[in-house]
């Protein structure tokens, strides 16, 4: 049993500015994450389903949030939800609030007809009793394709502090195709924007000829890292490299490369943060893969 004495349980409160501010305070206090910039990018995801406890002073002391995250798994569109922002203030731990919110949130997802529910965690044992299973994550590594000689770059770097660039990216996110037919998000603009703010050394480049945004990284003497492609039609890897004006020796794709006209070897990720899914039999990816880092939550 959870000890909820002196607390008020609330759902779907993000339209209340004071409650939204209280949730942001909770996440900054517990995780050191400042979600203030999200307000400039359009605010919280409108599909969010927060479940939280507030104290008498209006502080959010515990929270868990579900949000709509449709997935393409094994070529089929799946109505899926992601779980995030699971946090409890230090002085309220040990009262069963977190376990209670996980149960409530999963039950809400089931009632709304989500076929699958996914999350990232470094503590898988907390979620296994609720039916979650770890899905191994892989990146894809291999020699870069040959870029035609004499080709000229055709791109420009995006700046999300520029209103026009932000509007361009938001337009493409609304109409994007899944980056893979095997395992990918079908549409999740808010997480892409949040990750664009927080990922280190990330470059966002717009390719006018392809009307595509490329999320990528390239360290000195390291491989070219392709993190995501936002476009109605995913261009080939050689087209991307040609437009960016880069000629790396090796490429690492952070998602299944089946739409890139390029093959890389699947390499198992050895990371503390595990990806877990709860859903019906057959909803697990049948091939190695992972979601783009721009879709992580």
Automatic annotation (TrEMBL):
GO terms for molecular function: acyltransferase activity, transferring groups other than amino-acyl groups. This is Acetyltransferase (GNAT) family protein. It comes from the Bacteria. Residues 7-160 form the N-acetyltransferase domain. PROSITE patterns: GNAT. Keywords: Transferase. InterPro entries: Acyl_CoA_acyltransferase (IPR016181), GNAT_dom (IPR000182). CDD domains: NAT_SF.
